[in-house]
From TrEMBL:
<protein>
    <submittedName>
        <fullName>L-rhamnose catabolism isomerase</fullName>
    </submittedName>
</protein>
<keyword id="KW-0479">Metal-binding</keyword>
<dbReference type="InterPro" id="IPR050337">
    <property type="entry name" value="L-rhamnose_isomerase"/>
</dbReference>
<dbReference type="GO" id="GO:0016853">
    <property type="term" value="F:isomerase activity"/>
</dbReference>
<keyword id="KW-0464">Manganese</keyword>
<dbReference type="InterPro" id="IPR036237">
    <property type="entry name" value="Xyl_isomerase-like_sf"/>
</dbReference>
<keyword id="KW-0413">Isomerase</keyword>
Length: 424
């Protein structure tokens, strides 16, 4: 299904009066509104290929219909999102869920939709049909060198796919760890993993980055070999300048202070990328901003403070991606909501009066510090985000327009009700 520019313009026309009223009010209290709008227009959030289908849980899966059946259809779905919101201009692939058998055709298709290829994701947490050795007891940490070799070779293959598509980064998430005390020699598991990562690192092209993603628990429930940001940072530091830590919001123990983590990683020049999602309990992969929007704002606030201090470009110097998977919502609707939540948090963080905050911090004026932050957080920035979309030629209200166009119904007509998306 295609959405043409003309129908978006027509839709926006009908919304314009109400939007202008709300926008004029919002813009009147923002100092550099044009600067803020430009930043919002530049900011793009990558969509992971595995978020486009219904995820399910280990208890069951309830497919929604019209889900993408191939890599081409996944690209089309992200193209639709990008058309609607102007902020989803990249797709992140997972190998082997998305093997691009004809890379130049896939690349051309993505370009037609205005998409680039974000980080490539390797997969050594599942055994694939025909695979020689099992990852049951880990991949890069494995006691058997041959298993480690297999995992390294897979990652090198993923890099090759990425090169063919024009990607420039590899995300390595390992499920390696142990589920019972005594199962693993922690030091040896670390050393094996480091050695394997070093072999992958050596295969990175000159301009590539490697993101080492950590996760506190699951699928291993006693120890994870890349379990927290300290361990990830250790690997990244030992690997070299192309290696960075990747923060996934759902991969911490409850109540972890993620905003402090990102601040310190930025200070060290070792924050590479982000996986956005939200959670109440753990790696719930819920819609961004659906549970803890204030935390999301605080994270963005630290991100901007740290990035500005280092002269980094918000849009290009970190890898921004959603990492979600849903059981009961339309995945495309969910992604529209997620991107919107990210843009809102970003816009609010742009409004923080940094000078006032720094002055209040210097004077230990704790109440004032809170006031400054909450002044920005409690501002309704939705009209600013909508204005950025309008200027980018996207829909003023993407989710409403998605429903008006009956996108899901059309996709079901095209692809069928019973579709099994490849991946999770
Ligand atoms: C692990 C994880 C990782 C991906 C994805 C499928 O929980 O977040 O980033 O490989 O799930
Ligand atoms: Mn993740
Ligand atoms: Mn996860």
């Amino acid at each position: 299904m295609q959405i043409n520019k003309h129908s978006i313009q027509e839709y926006n026309q009908g919304q314009l009066q109400e939007h202008s009223r709300r926008y004029d009010f919002a813009a009147s209290s923002v100092k550099d509104v044009e600067g803020v709008l430009q930043k919002l227009m530049d900011f793009q959030v990558a969509i992971p290929s595995w978020a486009l289908g219904t995820g399910g849980t280990r208890f069951g899966r309830f497919p929604g219909g019209g889900e993408p059946r191939s890599l081409e259809e996944k690209i089309e779905d992200v193209g639709l999102l990008h058309r609607l919101n102007g902020a989803s201009g990249a797709i992140s692939l997972h190998i082997p869920w998305d093997i691009p058998t004809n890379a130049s055709h896939i690349k051309a298709l993505a370009a037609q939709h205005g998409l680039r290829f974000d980080a490539m994701n390797s997969n050594t947490f599942q055994d694939q049909p025909g695979q020689g050795l099992s990852y049951k007891f880990g991949s890069m940490q494995h006691v058997d060198k041959a298993v480690r070799r297999q995992a390294v070779e897979h990652n090198i293959e993923v890099i090759e796919h990425g090169v063919a598509l024009g990607s420039d980064s590899l995300t390595v998430w390992l499920s390696d760890g142990s589920s019972f005390p005594g199962q693993l020699n922690f030091r040896k598991a670390f050393e094996n993993t480091l050695e394997s990562l070093q072999e992958v690192y050596a295969a990175l092209p000159e301009n590539w980055k490697m993101f080492v993603e950590y996760k506190a628990f699951e699928p291993n429930f006693y120890s994870m070999t890349v379990g927290d940001w300290g361990q990830s940072l250790l690997y990244a530091n030992k690997l070299g300048p192309k290696a960075y830590t990747l923060v996934d919001l759902g991969h911490h123990l409850p109540n972890a202070n993620i905003e402090q983590i990102v601040s310190l990683l930025l200070m060290e020049g070792k924050l590479g990328g982000f996986h956005f999602n939200d959670s109440k309990y753990g790696d719930d992969d819920l819609t961004v901003g659906s549970i803890k929007p204030y935390q999301l704002f605080l994270i963005f606030s630290e991100l901007l403070e740290g990035m500005d201090a280092r002269g980094m470009n918000h849009a290009t110097d970190l890898g921004w991606m959603i990492d979600a998977s849903h059981n009961v919502k339309d995945p495309l609707e969910d992604l529209l909501q997620s991107v919107e939540a990210i843009m809102i948090a970003y816009a609010q963080a742009l409004l923080v009066d940094r000078k006032a905050l720094a002055a209040a911090q210097q004077e230990n004026d704790v109440a004032r510090c809170q006031e400054v932050l909450q002044e920005a957080y409690r501002t309704d920035v939705r009209p600013l985000v909508a204005e950025a979309r309008l200027r980018a030629g996207a829909a003023l209200r993407p989710l409403q327009f998605f429903r008006e166009l009956k996108v899901r119904e059309n996709l079901i007509k095209e692809r069928g009700r019973k579709t099994v998306a490849t991946g999770l």
